[in-house]
Each structure stands twice: as structure tokens, then as C-alpha cells.
Amino acid sequence: MSTFNVPKREEVSSTNQAIFDNLEKAVGFVPNLFATYAHSENALGNYLALSGAKTSLNAKQKEVVNLAVSQVNDCIYCLSAHTAIGKMNGFSEDQILELRAGRASFDNKLDALARLARNITQNRGATNADVLDNFFNAGWTKENLIDTIVLVGDKTISNYLHRTTDVPVDFPVAQPLEAVEA
């Protein structure tokens, strides 16, 4: 694989420099994967608009989807980032590992969401009817379904970007799920 550099602020367009400045203020640093989007004049702003768009899912529910999707797509960067974000949203280490496996025995509604996100990702959108029925039976709505599918797409974009570029992970590295489940 060719080496992909993580661009520094002075190496990106003025538009992306402004976004870097905003990220610095908001999170204290520019995550390597976000910086990698800045190789494009428009991708970073477009991606942040998508990932920050209004949704019927709250922050904790979004992390359920992010963790399940990133595990299926085997993206160590996103697994590491969303493990940290999941903890900030109140999930324990054990709960995060369970969510990565596409389930949540600790919460029936989140379990249906995790199973749906995993199934959509594994089957490239050809969702199993029983998984979808379980999702609705757990109290989710059609709006929640559509927003979940959009979030699966959002996270898949970042998963693919990292899997292609393999830029360094700048979060505490998540353990391989197999090592924990063994």
C-alpha cells in the first residue's frame, strides 16, 4: 500500500484550514482521519456536514451504530475513536465490546438497533426481515430506520477512507474483538 500522509494545517486549502481551526477548538486536535479528508478541497466539510446533520438518533444511539458498523467493516481507526466516544457517552468497556459484536443484552431497544446496524452493513442493505421486525417491535420508527441507514453510510465512508489510507490511529487503540471474546 502506498503511504498516505496526514496533511498538516499549512498543507491544506484555506477552507480546510478554517475547519482544522474549528476542530482544534471543539475537540482539542484535528483527528488524523479528518485531516486525511482535507486532501480534497470539499470532502472534509461535506463529511462533517453529513456526520453532524440532524437525526432522530441521540448521541448514545449513534455510537451504537458507529461501533457495530465499524466492527463489520474492520476499521481499527473508527473502532478506536468510537470506543473513546462511546465511553464519553456513558457506555462501559464491556458494553462497547458487546455493541461492536452487534448486540446489547443490557438494553432491548439498543440491542435491536445494534443488530439492525450490523445486519444492514453485513448484507449491504439487504436487511433480514426478522431483524427489521425486531427493530420495529422494540419501539423504533420508520424515521429511525432511515436515519440509521444514513448513519451506516456515514460511518462506512470513514471506514473505507481509513481502510484505504491506513493513516495512523491517534486514539487509544481498540482491542481486537476476537481477543476479548476468546
Describe this structure in words.
With 182 residues, the protein is an all-alpha fold. It has 2 domains: 9-51, Single alpha-helices involved in coiled-coils or other helix-helix interfaces (Up-down Bundle); 59-181, AhpD-like. It is built from 10 helices and no strands. The protein has helices spanning 14-27, 32-37, 43-51, 59-72, 76-88, 93-100, 108-122, 129-137, 142-165, 177-181. The protein is globular. The model has no long low-confidence stretch (mean pLDDT 95).
Instruction: Give me the number of helical elements.
Output: 10
Low-confidence stretches: none
CATH architecture of the largest domain: Up-down Bundle
Q: What's the overall geometry?
A: globular
> N- to C-terminal separation?
30 Å
Tell me the β content.
under 5%
Q: How many strands, what sense, and barrel or not for the largest sheet?
A: none
What name does CATH use for the topology of the largest domain? Answer: AhpD-like
Helix percent reads 55-70%
List the helices and strands and how they pair.
Blueprint: H1 14-27, H2 32-37, H3 43-51, H4 59-72, H5 76-88, H6 93-100, H7 108-122, H8 129-137, H9 142-165, H10 177-181
